[in-house]
């Protein structure tokens, strides 16, 4: 508690300092003045809680000093000292909001009692202010949440009519653009981990800081900032394009710089094309969200506007690692073989490597991971009790672009998948593998060959030939020829195609060689076989 003493008598100063129990109660005398002008300066400098002042003083008397404090909305308590007990002297002081009036010579007990009452009243006022601030904060949070809910519903297409949008916005005192505007979609990457590391898991603090930064970036432009409640890591800025020199890309870069500098968070930003009517907000949001997903995750330029040419990036990934991973996984799920276990885990790490992901767009990353999840989810025989939960969490992580969470979960899923396969593959791996290869050949007989099958199923070529021979009693090349010849027979009988056309359809570029192979398999040339079958029919 800070106290200021104002009196033109040195003896009063000494008496007050001796009577006030500053050390016992933790109070502090922050200043002493001997006239009103000096007191004004000390009030501005120290902002005391209690002022003890005389009335009669040189230069500026006590009443004028009190009038000065009242004009400046002084919130502390003023205790007046005077040697005059007549009401005519005390009345002006109380009209100037004096807390109490003490007569000289001072009584120590009376002084301490009056100071205690002043302190208690200040505490009550302070508590009421805190309660009012808390109530206001709760109300503000409620209004902010209602605005977020309204705008989230609008961008989701649940509120479509312009009249409904404007009426509901007006009810929430929400100023929406009345002319051309842009929608800026801001997606924050790996937000869960960032909040855990830097904000001890407190999302509300982060959301508050991010909202303030975005509102500052909006500056004098009419519009709104809201958190998309359908996604945990997305903010949206609606900004009216005011003025001839308004540059939405400049605003996007300002937003990106502020977020990365102040919050140290990774942000990708997609900007819609300009819209004229507020009922176009949903389509504007879709444009911003879609174009944002085309940005390469590790790109330096992470802001893009709908309608602009896609950012040309020589580092863009061809997703070779992910395609190979999908092939390995499909082979494992189809055949149950463990010959490719080490290769599968290595390929998973290559796909999940930071550089591999950095070279992908968000769109491609979502697609690649979703294909993996779909393959595993459809292979019910390889699922465990934990698997459905991991698959769902991974889908959520992909949707929210929680890349590190997705990486962790995919490793868990693959480890569990291999354990499940290990427990039941041994008795059936060879037969199931050959069965799967035969199915594959019957579909792709036109283009398939020994090297292609070995590569497709991640098998050593010599091992595959030996396994196929031991389980089927024939060489793979003999089986492939048999499949092709059966297809050629059907085409010769059931179509009017020439022998040359049929040769190409069953995988032979040389019609003469096809005829030679066909004759060896059937004892007849293709045209002879067709004529014989037509005669029989």
From TrEMBL:
InterPro entries: CheY-like_superfamily (IPR011006), Homeodomain-like_sf (IPR009057), HptR (IPR051552), HTH_AraC (IPR018060), Sig_transdc_resp-reg_receiver (IPR001789), Tscrpt_reg_AraC-type_HTH (IPR020449)
Gene Ontology CC: cytoplasm
UniProt cross-references to Pfam families, sorted A to Z: HTH_18, Response_reg
Domain of life: Bacteria
Gene3D superfamilies: 3.40.50.2300, Homeodomain-like
Main location group: cytoplasm
Response regulatory domain segment(s): 2-119
GO BP of this protein: phosphorelay signal transduction system
Protein name: DNA-binding response regulator
Organism of origin: Paenibacillus pectinilyticus
């Amino acid at each position: 508690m800070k106290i200021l003493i104002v009196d033109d008598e040195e003896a009063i100063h000494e008496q007050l300092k001796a009577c006030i129990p500053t050390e016992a109660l933790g109070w502090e005398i922050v200043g002493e003045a001997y006239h009103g002008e000096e007191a004004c300066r000390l009030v501005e400098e120290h902002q005391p809680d209690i002022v003890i002042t005389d009335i009669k003083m040189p230069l500026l008397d006590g009443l004028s000093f009190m009038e000065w404090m009242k004009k400046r909305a002084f919130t502390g308590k003023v205790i007046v000292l005077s040697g005059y007990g007549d009401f005519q002297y005390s009345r002006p002081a109380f009209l100037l909001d004096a807390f109490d009036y003490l007569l000289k010579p001072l009584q120590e007990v009376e002084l301490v009692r009056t100071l205690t009452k002043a302190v208690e009243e200040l505490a009550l006022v302070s508590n009421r202010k805190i309660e009012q601030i808390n109530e206001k904060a709760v109300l503000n949070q409620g209004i902010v949440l209602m605005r977020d809910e309204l705008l989230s519903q609008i961008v989701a297409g649940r509120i479509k009519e312009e009249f409904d949008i404007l009426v509901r916005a007006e009810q929430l005192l929400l100023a929406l653009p009345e002319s051309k505007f842009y929608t800026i979609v801001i997606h924050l990457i790996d937000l869960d981990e960032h909040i855990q590391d830097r904000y001890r898991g407190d999302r509300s603090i982060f959301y508050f800081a991010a909202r303030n930064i975005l509102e500052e970036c909006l500056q004098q432009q009419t519009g709104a900032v809201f958190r998309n409640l359908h996604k945990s890591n997305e903010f949206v800025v609606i900004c009216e394009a005011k003025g001839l020199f308004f540059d939405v890309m400049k605003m996007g870069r300002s937003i990106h710089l502020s977020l990365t500098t102040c919050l140290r968070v990774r942000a990708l930003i997609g900007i819609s094309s300009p819209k004229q009517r507020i009922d176009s907000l949903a389509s504007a949001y879709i444009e911003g969200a879609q174009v944002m997903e085309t940005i390469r995750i590790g790109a330096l330029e992470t802001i893009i506007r709908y309608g602009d040419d896609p950012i040309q990036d020589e580092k863009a990934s061809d997703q070779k690692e992910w395609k190979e991973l999908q092939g390995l996984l499909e082979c494992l799920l189809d055949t149950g073989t463990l010959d490719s276990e080490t290769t599968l885990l290595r390929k998973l790490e290559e796909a999940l490597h930071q550089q591999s992901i950095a070279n992908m767009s968000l769109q491609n990353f979502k697609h690649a991971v979703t294909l993996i999840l779909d393959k595993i989810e459809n292979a019910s025989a390889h699922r465990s009790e934990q698997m459905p939960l991991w698959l769902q969490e991974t889908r959520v992580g992909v949707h929210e672009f929680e890349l590190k969470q997705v990486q962790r979960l995919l490793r868990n899923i693959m480890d569990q998948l291999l354990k499940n396969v290990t427990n039941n593959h041994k008795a059936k791996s060879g037969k199931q593998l050959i069965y799967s290869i035969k199915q594959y050949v019957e579909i792709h007989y036109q283009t398939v060959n020994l090297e292609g099958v070995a590569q497709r199923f991640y098998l050593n070529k010599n091992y595959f030939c030996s396994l196929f021979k031991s389980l089927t009693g024939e060489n793979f090349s003999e089986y492939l020829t048999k499949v092709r010849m059966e297809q050629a027979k059907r085409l010769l009988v059931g179509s009017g195609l020439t022998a040359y056309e049929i040769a190409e359809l069953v995988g032979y570029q040389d019609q003469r060689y096809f005829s030679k192979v066909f004759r060896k398999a059937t004892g007849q040339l293709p045209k002879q076989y067709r004529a014989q079958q037509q005669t029989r029919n």
